[in-house]
Design a protein that fits this description.
459 residues, mainly beta, 20-stranded antiparallel barrel
Length: 459
């Protein structure tokens, strides 16, 4: 325990050093403090939650804490009032490793950031929302928040453009899903090789990129709860706890070519060539177009998938489906997924300067003669209103449904991520309602549903 506390102290000191080093004439600090009170269900038990949410920013540097004190008050068998803290927030009963304690205490930071996404250098550490690199054909919409509220993961992402060095021809994007475990890492190097060679827009602005991703531990979040030597949520004969996984390695080469842009419409072409694995990798490719017409947003892709190739390998529900995807990735026998040509079609609308967004997309193969459920279409939907547009409310709703074999499946939430968040603002108070449902294949109950009602004060 002492080493974990020491790590926490060191983490705080390293975070504050840049603040102490600011000159007196530097930017004035901006401090906000919030407190939120609500309830949350953890391990089938309802806990009270009191969250302390201080934020401090100074110039480009900003940091926020999220200290969630979760507890219950219940009468025991003797009728005495019993106070119980959710212990996994503060220490690990089995002793835990340095890596586990590092993540436990790092996750008390809601975020640490430098700059904004539009800046030549942007770094953000903490929870990762919808993370997409390049065209999104390898990593599209990945999030490391699926294990919340039981487990918060501290990751990071960054964007770096050559403008920082007065060389606006190169850029670099990167992400790490879990800084303490260094498990899933990805990076994309991109450039504009014809920027100074021609004035033809489609050639001048073409962006070429190369990507590299690796998951060093595909079974990181699996557990053997009954200590029988097998992971509980998967077939025992396939996934014993001593199963020796190899690193997932995925590389890609892509292009993005803006064709046309004005105040009314835009159009860009894109493509990707992807290799999943080393030696004899699974191969796939994509050609597509995306753009806008007034408030409408659209995207279309033709996808070419070899045997056992999985498009958008690192997608939104990846942390729930790591083992399933790894089984296909590591397969060396008869194909689990047959080669196919597929599609993605997306249509949506954006209003109020991209603050009100609605989007629906469908993807899958053009044909599925063997009725393989893993090749059935998938539907995603998002409807959101960003804070600040309306004084009293903002919201975000999402639906991600896999394995759609017929019309009935569209309204059957099995094999889906379903959620919604509504914030009501009555300054200085904020009331939040959130329901988050995750379908977990192999789990005895299949559904992990979290509901929260919170009241917060910000000043």
């Amino acid at each position: 325990m002492k080493r974990s506390l020491a790590a926490l102290h060191l983490m705080i000191i390293l975070t504050l050093i840049p603040l102490w080093s600011q000159e007196e004439t530097g930017p004035e600090p901006d401090f906000n403090f919030g407190i939120s009170i609500g309830t949350v269900t953890l391990e089938d038990e309802v806990y009270n939650s009191v969250r302390f949410l201080p934020e401090l920013s100074m110039g480009k540097l900003g940091a926020g804490l999220d200290i969630d004190f979760r507890f219950t008050l219940k009468n025991n068998d003797q009728g005495d009032l019993r106070f119980k803290v959710y212990r996994n927030d503060w220490y690990l009963e089995d002793g835990g490793s340095f890596q586990e304690y590092l993540n436990l205490y790092l996750s008390k930071f809601a975020y640490i950031r430098w700059g904004e996404e539009r800046d030549s250098l942007f770094v953000r550490l903490g929870s990762l929302g919808s993370t997409t690199l390049g065209t999104g054909y390898i990593m599209g919409g990945y999030s490391n928040t699926l294990l919340m509220p039981e487990q918060r993961i501290f990751g990071g992402q960054f964007n770096l453009t050559g403008e920082l060095f007065n060389f606006p021809y190169l850029g670099l994007q990167g992400m790490i899903s879990n800084l303490s475990a260094l498990d899933l890492l990805g990076g994309r190097l991109y450039g504009y090789p014809a920027a100074d060679l021609t004035e033809i827009p489609i050639v001048k602005n073409i962006e070429l990129g190369t990507s590299f991703y690796t998951d060093r531990n595909p079974f990181l979040y699996l557990e053997d709860l009954d200590e029988d030597g097998y992971y509980d949520i998967y077939d025992n004969s396939v996934y014993p706890t001593d199963y020796d996984t190899e690193n997932v390695v995925i590389t890609g080469f892509d292009f993005i070519a803006p064709v046309y842009a004005d105040s009314f419409s835009t159009l860009a072409l894109m493509g990707d060539l992807v290799f999943q694995g080393s030696g004899d990798p699974k191969k796939g490719g994509m050609l597509g177009a995306a753009g806008s017409v007034s408030f409408l947003r659209y995207m279309g892709q033709i996808r070419f998938m070899g045997d056992d190739f999985q498009p958008v390998y690192f997608d939104a529900p990846y942390d729930l489906l790591r083992a399933d995807k790894y089984t296909v990735y590591a397969n060396e026998g008869d194909p689990v997924l047959d080669a196919a040509t597929g599609y993605l079609a997306s249509l949506g609308a954006a209003f109020l300067q991209e603050s009100l967004i609605f989007n629906v997309s469908v993807e899958g193969p053009f044909s599925n003669p063997d009725n393989d459920p893993y090749m059935d279409p998938r539907l995603k939907g998002v409807f959101s209103l960003q804070p600040g547009v309306l004084e009293i409310v903002d919201f975000n709703f999402w639906y991600d449904k896999m394995y759609i074999s017929g019309f009935d499946d569209l309204i059957n939430p099995e094999n889906a991520l379903v959620g919604g968040l509504v914030n009501l603002h009555m300054a200085p108070a904020v009331i939040s309602f959130q329901v988050d449902a995750k379908y977990e294949p192999g789990d005895s109950s299949n559904w992990n549903v979290t509901s929260q009602i919170r009241t917060g004060i910000q000043y």
